[in-house]
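Sorry to interrupt, but I need a hand with the structure work. I would like you to pick a protein and set down its sequence and fold. Please put the record directly below this note.
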Amino acid sequence: MITRADTLARAATLRATFEAAGAVPVETPILQPADTLLDLYGEDIRARAYITSDALRGEQMLRPDFTVPVVEMHMSHGAEPARYTYSGEVFRRQEHDPDRANEYIQVGYEVFDRANPAAADAEVFTLFAQAVAPLNLRAATGDIGVLMAAVRGLRTTDARKAALLRHIWRPRRFRALLERYAGRLPVAAQRARLLEGALSDDAPLIGKRSQAEIDARVALLRADAAEPPLNGAEVDLLDALLNVRETMPYALAQLRDIAVDLPSIAAAVDGLAARAEALAASDVDVDGLPFEASFGRTSMEYYDGFVFGFFSAQRADLPAIATGGRYDALTRRLGNGAEIPAVGGVLRPGLMLELEAQA
C-alpha cells in the first residue's frame, strides 16, 4: 500500500532533481484568493474548486494548482531569468468522476526566461521525460498557439474571434460557435424570437442582470446576426488544422501546407519548428514524437502555446502522470503591465508510485 509518506518522499526526490537543474524551491499558501482565479477562468472554476468564504478576506479557494500563485509571486518580485520548483497538495472537485482523488500531491517546475522560448520548452519537456522514463509512458504534445493564431486570422468581427478564443478550452462550445458563425446550424427558436424582438415589455426580470444589461446583450446578438457567415474555406482549413495528428515531422509538413492558405498561422508554425529543433538538440526522438493540434484543449485555460502530457498506456483509467505547457499570456494578465515568456509543468508522484507498484 502506498502511503502519504511514500508520496512525500518521492515528491522530495523529484523536487531535488529540479533544484539540481537550477530551480529555486518556493512555497505558496493552500488558501488562495478566489477573485484572481474567477477573473481568469470565469464562474466555470466553481465547478472544479473548493471555495470558502471569509468575513475579512472574502472568498477563498483551496489551491487548485500552483502555477497561478507562482506567476503572481514572480511578477511581483522575481528576478529574471528564473526557475522555480515546488511540491504540495492541490484540490480539485471530481463530481464527474468520483473514483478520482480530489486531493493529491503535485511537484512542479517553472521557467521564466525570454532569451530562447524554444530552448525553454525543450528544457522542461526533457526534464519531465527523464523523470518518467522508467514508467514507459506515452507522450503527447500540441500547440494551442497555432489554433489561437488561426482564430485570430479569421476574416470576421473581433467579437466573434474573441468568443472563439474564449472557448478554445471548451471544444464542444467552440465547435457550436464555429458552426453557428459559419451559418451551418439553424437558429434556435428561442434565439430567433429574441432577434425578432418578440419579447414582452412587461416580462418580469429574472436573475441579476439589469434591464440595461439585457438590452445591451440583445443589441450585441442582433448585430452579430447581421454579420455575414464565416468563409467556408477558412472553416474547412480550421477543421483540417484541428485534425492534424501525426508524428512531429509529418505534423509540421501538414501545418506548413495549411499555412499556405491560412497565413496567420505561419509564425506559430515556425515556432513549432524551432521547438522541434531544440528538442532534437536535447536528444528527444522528434521523429517518433506524437503531435496533436487539439491536444491540451481541456486543460487549465492559461496554456497558450506548447503543451505536453505523459500517460500510461496500460492504465487508460488514470489521468496524466505529468502535464505542462507555455503560458506567456498569463504573465501578462498577472504582471500589471509586465510580461515574460514562461513554461512549466507538474508531476503526480502518487501516480508514479502506483504504476511502479503494478510493474
Remarks:
- The mean pLDDT is 88.
